[in-house]
Structure formats: structure tokens, C-alpha cells
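Explain this record to help learners:
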Amino acid sequence: MSTRSYAVTDSITMLRRDLKKILRYPTSVIFIVGFPLLFLLLFVYVFGGALGTSVANLGNGSTSYVDYIVPGLVVMTAATGSLGTSSSVNVDMTEGIIARFRTMAIFRPSILIARVVSSMMQTLTSMALIFGVALLMGFRPTAGIGEWIMAIGLLALATFALTWLGVAFGVAAKTLDAASNAPFPLIILPFVGSGIVPTESMPNGVRQFAEYQPFTPIIETLRGLLMGTPIGHNAVIAIAWCVGLSIVGFLWARKNFNRDRTQ
């Protein structure tokens, strides 16, 4: 077999292992879906009246608050997925299974490749569930087939970037607690952006931070694709952020994965 064939075969084998692990321990799936779902229910049914009025007064184009908040919470699902990825990668790194894999004649990058692919499949499935619940709650996107395809592509790209960051956190952390806590700011950032309320309603300082952090252009682009609100230059900025975060996460994960942890 050629080197490429070995790489594909080993990656598929590792992917099968990771998927079986996800099915055996579904708590990570429950967390990835449950966290954004909890906020969806909380903000729509408890705070939706007050926040919906504020959103409507700023003329964002949404006819109901659930239409406004869903894109932000779907993007948050990618962030919660990175936390689960970080924890599971760290468990493998610290419990010796990776050290055992390193002694075997396998394509070493297949370990990380499989983890990224399995985590993306898990997170994208969770996003679909969030969309399903949101539709039951009254979410009514105006997107056509083309806009949905572009929205799915954007979510896949954002998930890819945040998953690589999660892998990097998990490989670099020396303990499970550190791996679990490191990605948590990624979950908070959609709140300090346009995920819950428009940035125009925020005071100076906070508003500037919200407008220039990576999640806001991603959320605004997704909202524009699904709800028909203006996108402007947000799409280009969102793609640039995703590509940049992917590169940072990949290089950081590769550097620490190749490091001898016994030193």
C-alpha cells in the first residue's frame, strides 16, 4: 500500500474509534446541545419580551426575538463543542493511549485528523437539533436553498476552526481541569457580541470590543443569510477569522502533539 493509502486507512480507523467513543459516552453530546438549548429557552421565554422590544427598536430586520437570537446560539454550539473536544483529547493524552499509539506503525496525524472530523460531525449534528427546536419555538428563516447552503458552509468552517482550537487546548493542557476550563471564554464571547442583543445597544468600550471580536462577524453573516439582514463586509471578516483561527489551532496542536510529554 502507498503512504496515502495508509494515511486514509489509519484516519478511518481512528475516526471509527472516536465515533464509538462518542456513542458510548453521550454526555458530551448532551452538553453541546443542552447548553445553547438552555439559553434559547431562557432568553426567548423569560427575557424575550424585554430584549425583543430592544432589538425591534434598533431596526435589525427580525420580526421576533427568536429570529434574532437563533444564529448566535447556533454559533455558540460550535464553541461548546470545542470544550468537549478539548476534554476528550486531553483524556487521551494524559491516560496513555496516545503514548501507545506512538509506538505503533500508524500514520500519526490520523489521530488528530480523526478527532477533528468526529468532533465536527458531533457539533454539526447538535446544530441541526438546535435548529429543529428553534423551528418548533417559532423561528422562521427566510433563506432560500442557496442561502442555506452558504450558511451550512459558514457553520462548517466556524466549527472546523473552533474544533482545531479545542484540539490544541486539549493537547497543550497538562490536566483535565485545565483542558475543560481553557475553551470556556469561547462560549462567553457570543454574549459579548451580537449573539443576544445588537452591539449598537452596548456602551462605548464594550461595543468596540463586541464589534471587533471574531464571533460577531460570523453571527452577523449567518443572520444575514438566514434572515435577509444586511451582511456588508462581515462575510469576508468572518471567513478571515475562521481561516486564521484554524491555522493557529492546527499549528499549536501539531507543535504540542509532537512534543515529548515526558521531558
Observations:
- The chain is about 75% helix and 0% strand.
- The mean pLDDT is 85.
- The radius of gyration is 19 Å.
